[in-house]
Fold these 2 entries.
Entry 1:
Amino acid sequence: MKSVGTVKTEYFTFAQSPNELKLESGQSLGPITLAYETYGALNQEKSNAILVLHALSGDAHAAGFHEGAEDPGWWDDLIGPGKALDTLKYFVICPNIIGGCRGSTGPSSVNPKTGKPYGLSFPLITISDMVKAQKHLIDHLGIKKLLSVIGGSMGGMQALQWVASYPKHVQSAIPIATALKHSPQQIAFDEVGRQAVMADPAWNNGNYYDATKPERGLAVARMIGHITYMSDKSMEEKFSRKLKAKNFSFEFTTDFEVEGYLRYRGDNFVKRFDANSYLYITKAMDYFDLSADKLIPKERNSDLRFLVLAFKSDWLYPAYQSQEIARQLKVRGVDATYCEINSTYGHDAFLLEVEEETHLIKHFLDKTFRGYTIAR
Amino acid sequence: MKSVGTVKTEYFTFAQSPNELKLESGQSLGPITLAYETYGALNQEKSNAILVLHALSGDAHAAGFHEGAEDPGWWDDLIGPGKALDTLKYFVICPNIIGGCRGSTGPSSVNPKTGKPYGLSFPLITISDMVKAQKHLIDHLGIKKLLSVIGGSMGGMQALQWVASYPKHVQSAIPIATALKHSPQQIAFDEVGRQAVMADPAWNNGNYYDATKPERGLAVARMIGHITYMSDKSMEEKFSRKLKAKNFSFEFTTDFEVEGYLRYRGDNFVKRFDANSYLYITKAMDYFDLSADKLIPKERNSDLRFLVLAFKSDWLYPAYQSQEIARQLKVRGVDATYCEINSTYGHDAFLLEVEEETHLIKHFLDKTFRGYTIAR
């Protein structure tokens, strides 16, 4: 498969004083910078734009390669010439969320009013706030209506929120491995991750930017996360009870390969992620709730189309949650297709089940684009 | 239901120098004290003894009330006059495991050689070491053969280990919600718990007995545990998305009831449990492996009977692991009954599904006891 090649992250700044972004909490935030990348070209009619939304630890770099980098963006398998999000046909935009730490304004950004990083003085943001900021970017790019909004996990929440917040500005949505709201189990996993970060004395109530970072706490949070992203079966297939050495150490070192994997993933994560962002983003997910008919407003765009994807072995965002999305759409008479992909990868499947996803998404987008073009 | 009434923990000390207990690691441990309780009376033939084995955070106090205490022992619902383990008929013994912190010798015990708590100089112990120590207690009580060994979770591992280590000294076994070995997912959850403890600077490589204890780290470990003990459904039934206050706080406080529950459970646990014991015990569970025909030795006791219990919603010790126990027994021609109890409580079900368990266990023990008595 071909790649979009070398790409560069771009930045868009808005919500300058006194036009700060009004947040769901009642607080304001500004100025706001959004880091984003685009792939492919916007057509004359500006009718081929697809917004890709990332998950908890994702960023704007979804496809192609940064200058000199070995690894491509996080969804490179699905974005590029001839791929599911075909950059020969579509203009793909991927923004980093506000509250994050990968170029967009978040708790680790410098507050222009104080000249210091926000830390916990950064206001709590919600999924709807993230989407509100993205709407500014879409306006800035001159796009009236997005052909599609797509994302997995928290990216799926943003896709759903786009429909709820801006139904007239979205032609279709592809929420993958996501939910209308977090269950208490999902909240519980997030809360334990937050507690792990906040239990680290280096966290220091969020003031650590000029000191030691709460790396141990954040690593523990990430390790918990990784267990929930895989399935019992995929862990069995990948690690079984394989040992790192020939025998048990009879010490508190890494005996099992799965332990080494978790430690490696935890240690790696802290190098690229801000602990406060972890708190803000998980809280935004926990607050998210589009159940009880909040997804589709009554004056909805009647030609809105949905492709709802779930994965059989995903126990973090179980298929019943995607079925509930589909059910709510059907009740409102919305054109929605629900597919449950047979995968053993667990929640990670949305990043790994490339072939199956490509098939479904490509077909869905083609049909949406054809319909959209004819309708115009 | 009647209670066994007021009970007292007893203590048995053995493995005095130079007769230390030889451990699986090759190291030795001694002297060893086992805290234990007994309920009911041993009959003349010493044929009515049942050994109850506890799980990770359990202790010797399985039934009745300590002087002045409001809460009964951890399995009081199943142990007492007329209950599943009927103390009018049976003599019930419950020892605290070695490595623990509830009266038996563990890392928080004083090492007589140094006059200081062992800390990490305590040798790593295995489930088979725990059982080896229990065998000394059973010998001390003059019991040649146990009518049954019973336990849930890690208690079930010990029950299985009794069969593997001392097949001629066990008449029957009731392993509940347990496994022949931990899967990589189970190891992963344990490892993250250990990492949470060890990430706490107060842990100080296990030397904290005369200083601040690693309470925050241990609380995080316990919170992770609690999520795995419940099911998605039981959390939904118990908490749903109920809030503590009327609205979201838009702060990092406890918004959801499930968060409050986890914090409460975590904070409560650290008051009664030693962080080092948490490390030692989880490691013992991870090392445990009676798969590949290690459960039933070839020269097995031919009249050994098994009742294997699992719970449908238990995703920490999924039913397939209990089915694997039953399968291994059937292959060896052992008299084994497997029952999967329809419960929504998750792993906690072994403590909560009293009625169903009582019915199955009572009947099984009656039959075992009758057969045993006739055979003699």
Entry 2:
Amino acid sequence: MAGFNQLFVPGPTNVPESVRQAMNMPMEDMRAPDYPTFTRGLFTDLMKVFRNETGRAFIFPSSGTGAWESAITNTLSPGDRVLMSRFGQFSHLWVDMAERFGLDVDVVDVEWGTGVPVEIYAERLAADKEHRIKAVFVTHNETATGVTSDVGAVRAALNAAKHPALLFVDGVSSVGSIDFRQEEWGVDCAVSGSQKGFMLPPGLGFLSVSQKALNAAKTAKFSRCYFSFEDQIRANDTGYFPYTPAVQLLRGLRAALDLIQEEGLDNIFERHHRLATGVRKAVDAWGLRVCAKEAKWNSDTVSAIVVPEGIDSADIVRRAYNGYQTSLGVGLNKVAGKVFRIGHLGWVNEVMMCGAISAAEMSLRDCGVKVQPGSGVGAALEHYRLSAQPAVAKAA
Amino acid sequence: MAGFNQLFVPGPTNVPESVRQAMNMPMEDMRAPDYPTFTRGLFTDLMKVFRNETGRAFIFPSSGTGAWESAITNTLSPGDRVLMSRFGQFSHLWVDMAERFGLDVDVVDVEWGTGVPVEIYAERLAADKEHRIKAVFVTHNETATGVTSDVGAVRAALNAAKHPALLFVDGVSSVGSIDFRQEEWGVDCAVSGSQKGFMLPPGLGFLSVSQKALNAAKTAKFSRCYFSFEDQIRANDTGYFPYTPAVQLLRGLRAALDLIQEEGLDNIFERHHRLATGVRKAVDAWGLRVCAKEAKWNSDTVSAIVVPEGIDSADIVRRAYNGYQTSLGVGLNKVAGKVFRIGHLGWVNEVMMCGAISAAEMSLRDCGVKVQPGSGVGAALEHYRLSAQPAVAKAA
Amino acid sequence: MAGFNQLFVPGPTNVPESVRQAMNMPMEDMRAPDYPTFTRGLFTDLMKVFRNETGRAFIFPSSGTGAWESAITNTLSPGDRVLMSRFGQFSHLWVDMAERFGLDVDVVDVEWGTGVPVEIYAERLAADKEHRIKAVFVTHNETATGVTSDVGAVRAALNAAKHPALLFVDGVSSVGSIDFRQEEWGVDCAVSGSQKGFMLPPGLGFLSVSQKALNAAKTAKFSRCYFSFEDQIRANDTGYFPYTPAVQLLRGLRAALDLIQEEGLDNIFERHHRLATGVRKAVDAWGLRVCAKEAKWNSDTVSAIVVPEGIDSADIVRRAYNGYQTSLGVGLNKVAGKVFRIGHLGWVNEVMMCGAISAAEMSLRDCGVKVQPGSGVGAALEHYRLSAQPAVAKAA
Amino acid sequence: MAGFNQLFVPGPTNVPESVRQAMNMPMEDMRAPDYPTFTRGLFTDLMKVFRNETGRAFIFPSSGTGAWESAITNTLSPGDRVLMSRFGQFSHLWVDMAERFGLDVDVVDVEWGTGVPVEIYAERLAADKEHRIKAVFVTHNETATGVTSDVGAVRAALNAAKHPALLFVDGVSSVGSIDFRQEEWGVDCAVSGSQKGFMLPPGLGFLSVSQKALNAAKTAKFSRCYFSFEDQIRANDTGYFPYTPAVQLLRGLRAALDLIQEEGLDNIFERHHRLATGVRKAVDAWGLRVCAKEAKWNSDTVSAIVVPEGIDSADIVRRAYNGYQTSLGVGLNKVAGKVFRIGHLGWVNEVMMCGAISAAEMSLRDCGVKVQPGSGVGAALEHYRLSAQPAVAKAA
């Protein structure tokens, strides 16, 4: 088929040209004398994206799942009690991992379309006078349902209860795209991956940790090697890695971090909010709704759109792919068949989003959903132009 | 700015990924023993795109302008009378070149928005009993106004008059995108360039010629060296070039020709017609009109859209570029300020066109043109989905 | 500095142009409907490189170290007794991992420069009537010393003892470069990585396993998630992955597997032997020797060259890098300062090796080692030309 | 075949990685509002490479041959008398072009292996009291024979004769590689191309001109359009081009000019001299000689090496290509079969040259030339290391 494929899954996201150019490289020796000069800047600038000021960051050749595993196995011990919540495929998988590693998981199940139940967390923490809970887990952005949770509120609950538990955050589809403040929120283990807000191909797992997490690693009893903090620290401190790093992706990471610094984190967050708002206006114009139950849960990185009864959302995704060369996200697990997803994170802009909405409109109509042609994209583009900087608003 | 730039000028056009990959190469020796194996396939397959069966094709490191010059200087002599018509910036420039080379140019000026005046050509040819006219020039697709002329009708006029003049066609923005039949239409010199339907970066000029043109070259008296047929033929016949060819673009050309063969010329023409129709439906929905005066002149590779009185079309193009990272075509020469252009040729598809139309809608409204948000893109996308293969038409 | 950097470390190795082109790609959705068509071919062809006919292969976003960990955690249980040997940095690190995971490691330490002590292994296996040894580990090619061990002989020892232990092989710097026969040798877990014989950037860990290993996974008691066989199998069987795979490297892997199939494994092994022999002839001509104690240990993928007393091999490596833009391998651990290494695996040919040897000669002389200028490269190139196919041997 | 191809023809030359990365780009609009910001820097920095301070430079989508044609057709008129000399294939072709354009060419034929006969030029100029000679042509570096001529001496001859003729220099294989001083030497038209010292793929012709040449263009009577100064000036002055420029190569040119500025022209000249000297020492060690008759003619960008009687140099080139994936230059025209050429210009360094010499040694021996294996590369590498910066000279 002709023309460019259009990628609007919530990761992998589109790779900027400068990142792509940087990865178009011959191989290099990761033990070269001048390699540390390169790697040190990476770690420093990576921490800035997490707004981690006093801890350190690890870069694993892995997916974000590997970084989850690193967080658990380096700071906890078998049988440790942890507080988690489940409201989507990714929070579900994290619970599953914790259970498989033998943690004593206190899972709070809440409705899909909502997020971390801060009040319940607050109660449990307040009740846990003996501090048996060793860690509290927050899926910052549940990619399956397009729900963003309030990390700061969980920190407040911990503080209110004067609870010493570690705070773990899955920021795979949030860090670098929406507001995340590791230092301010006292996040001990913040997990992310290369293929979302970092605008890289998948293949790097990031784990940004606090000094408290580093201290916890000294007594944590899980076996670990590949994902060991200690090995990384020993090598990273010399500018190298304990085993061969993914050198091509590291060169891409450099270019991506440069782009992030150039645009500025706050501008990036604002751009994501603006683009996401346009998508939500399109959904409204279609007469449909997003999976997030209330506006406060709305994610600025991905929207899960609920299809009408009797329609299989998988058909819409398949139609967009086969008919219009456009990748949308399928519904996963409990919302399989019920939602399709539009990723609006990373290297995206207004016109790209109008393309995504257009593809969705064609596919919805092809599958029998009677949205008005042009209604969604019209609502979105009018929002985009009215909110553009510098503002221009001639037509009425 | 974030996200991909969107390119909808009528050339350079978007480069397919496989072409881009093919050009991501180390340098090579254009005198290598096995280079002819490579070049021979290029010439053969290039001729197929022109539907030239009995002549030959030349590949110059140049723009299409160079191929124009090659056509003139190799087949004509100073003072030769030629019949040309002018109805846009590119037909104008071709006339200018002919005059500067000292040809005796009979220019027929017709209204911009119309094309080659076949009836007038027929009269002049019928009247030219002494066959003083040595060549008849046709701008197949006037890129400045979005007008396609009828090459076959000019051939018919030549035949009706039993006139031996050479037939020159500027196919820069037509060949490989819309129906072109060199053999059937008896085109003697067909000019094109790499950066339009061939989906390559600019840098190659193509000239596809008939045996009649090759014969004419034997007596043509212009001085020529860089663009000489004779030098090319001598070298090309051995699989090489008379001077260093643009080897990187040649590798890209191989990939582009493969894509063209894979999709099939007739399918490519159909795709261009379908995408162009969608754009024209958008223009209708906006309440605007294209520059082409009648439907028969409509170009399937570029639409020039007339803006309302009091609006400067250059503002719209500038707004799209600065505000929405989208390159549209400006109005040139007589239609400067009056039209903006959307290129819909080469490596394009439905969603890309919806993006282009969305960018145009935002820019039009920003500049005070009261098009209904979503009206154009809605009209286009509904056309695209209803004409998609295989057809799917559920929503009413 | 000008000109291309020269890479002759034993991994990462040079990436072929077609692999580089394949990785120059926009991102794609790893959940696309047609993705399984792509992934299935990868698994099938990857197994062929291991000559694994009846098991299956796993592809992890990781380094080879991750694949080591996967082998251990999926097929063994804490406290299991394993038989290992140590004779270089990489066999050392594997022992270290096994110990950290709580295996009961019977380590046989042998002189660096020799390899797996098959006779001792045979004795231990014969003595282990109760089959307490659950797995036997073989570092096929010790990258630190340039020593290749005899995997087939270890299989013979297992068979002679009628011992049911699993056979683990570290083939990171052997598979795809030198003779490896998983099926014939009954290797249960064969580990490799993308950045050596597979000619890719680092970032993929490969684990090719037998049915026996898959069965062992059913009762193995280590916690595991990221590197779990079970999760991979469930997803891979549908053509997908349990978490986001490194899609860019997977496209590169496709291109690399195509190159491997095109050249043919046996031809690849023969090429590596020929190139390695040339390097060893150069070492002889210099009056130096390789670290491998006997010819039978010589590795065809990397040569560790012993420098004269009083010379620090790290100076030579540094000089080659800073003075001649050439990356050679440093000595690691016990042979730090004593050897430097030339990698001759992957996408290499005669002229590249002559360049490597030239760089080594300049650096050796700069550091005070009195090798005769041109002696090594002369010996190597004469070997290369005399062993070239088709043979040409005019000059005497 | 495996491993990288090795390119040592005297153009196209090896493309640096940063240039390759810069050309790995999506297409762009050459009429974009901010395009002039980009192009202006190109012209400014291009002139610096020619050391042209007061004239201007033109960039054509063409080969260097096109720039030759531009120089002639814009500054001369049919029938003008010009003084040229012929001593190789490229000076021959330039004479041929001048004759075909109807210039009255006074050709001085001198032995191949020598260069511009300054004394004869001086005589002719002194004798031409009526100033009938309108231009004097100098092939600065004759690529076919590896001969560099003395441009400054020709300027001195012109000055001594107080002769107003224009000075034309073919600097295709010299500018950016060896000392060239347009302003100081009063060169009026200096021709070059992208694929030599500029380290780009072929496809751009450069013409750097003096104010005197620009004045001459006002009265020059050749027809011209594609290569017209006037059209270029009018467009370039606005930051654009008169027809579609080769935008991808222009982005590459930016990266190449950055590299040139970073290394510094004088350092580049010194590097070329050092690398060329090594090649000549190799030729001496082989017992062969270069085509240049005296040391003063030696070119620092290409060496043409004379093979012994009874040997066909084309066999050596073919053997290097087919047997060792190495491209050497063939002998052209009068020296066909008699010389082979090693290009040592552009993005080259010591180890690359050792590879080239190694390939030549293998090929020479394969073809029956009894050079001592390692003799040439040994002589070269010893020169390289002794002349390296900073100098290191331990081994005796």
